[in-house]
Amino acid sequence: MKLVFATNNQHKLSELQAILGNKFQLLSLQEIGCNEEIPEEQDTLEGNASQKAWYVFNKYGYNCFADDTGLEIDALGGKPGVYSARYAGSSKDPEKNMEKVLKKLAKIKNRHARFRTVISLVINGVEEQFEGEIEGEILTERRGEEGFGYDPIFMPTGYQDTFAEMDMNVKNRISHRGRAVKKLVEFLITTKND
Ligand code: IMP
After folding, report:
1. 170: exposed, middle or buried (Cβ count in 10 Å: 0-12, 13-18, 19+)
2. Where in the sequence numbering do the catalytic residues fall?
3. pLDDT beyond 70 at 194
4. What is the share, in percent, of the chain residues with pLDDT greater than 70?
5. How far is the CA of 69 from the centre of ligand 1 (A)?
6. In the CATH hierarchy, which fold is given to the domain comprising 2-193?
7. Lowest mean pLDDT among 6-15, 45-54, 80-89
8. How deeply is 98 buried, as exposed, middle or buried, from its count of CB atoms within 10 A (0-12, 13-18, 19+)?
9. Atom of ligand 1 nearest to the CA of 175
10. Which residues sit with their C-beta closer than 6 Å to ligand 1?
11. Which protein residue has the closest C-alpha to ligand 1 atom 9?
12. Does the model's pTM come out above 0.85?
C-alpha cells in the first residue's frame, strides 16, 4: 500500500519506512508533487492533524497520515498547545518561545506539562486517530543542546535529563511522537498488512 506521510522531513520518513517494512511504501509530500503549505487552521491538535490528512487525501487521492504536536502546560491552562510553534510570534523561533514560557512561569510553582501528539490516518476515506503523550515538568532554565523546540526546558517524569540532554534514541522511544507512531504502526501492521 502506498501511504503519504504529510511531511518533508526525509529522516522521519526513512525511520518509519524501516519499521513498516515493504508492505507499505511511504511517500513524502514532495514525492506526490505537493509543494504548497497545507492548511492548519483548527484550534486543536486533533483538528489540525485531521485537516492535513484529509487535505492530501481529497486533493491528491492518496491514503495519508499527518501529525500535530503541542506542549500543554497546566498552569497556563494547556497553552501553548496547538500554538506551540508560533507561541512567541510568527517567526516560530524556539528561543523566543522558551523565553516566553519561562517568563510566564517565573513565579509559578506548578510546572507540570505534557507533550501530546495526534496522528490522523485516512485510508480509503476512513479516518483513525492515534495519540501519544509524555508527562513532565518545565525547568527554570535551559539544559542541553540536542533536540529541538522546547526540548531544553522539558524534563520527562522519572528522568533526570531534559529532552535536550538525552540520547536521541532514548527520546524517540519514550516521546509523545514515538508513542503515537507506535500505535499507528501497530494498527497498520495488524489491520492493513494483507
Ligand atoms: P509539530 O506539530 O510537530 O510541527 O510541532 C509543533 C511545535 O511543537 C514545534 O514547532 C515545537 O515548538 C514543538 N514540539 C513538537 N515536538 C517537539 C519535541 O519533541 N520537542 C520539543 N518541542 C516540540
Report:
1. middle
2. 68
3. no
4. 99
5. 6
6. Maf protein (3.90.950)
7. 6-15
8. buried
9. 19
10. 68-71, 84-85, 94, 97, 115, 147-151, 163, 175
11. 85
12. yes
